[in-house]
Amino acid sequence: MWFNTLESPPLPNLMKEIHIEDLDLVITTINKQLYCFENRCPHEDIKLSLGCVQGNEIKCALHGYKFNLVSGLCVDDDIHPLNTFQAKLKDGLVSIQIEEADK
Ligand code: FES
Question: What domains are there in the chain, each with its CATH number?
Answer without folding.
Answer: 2-102 (2.102.10.10)
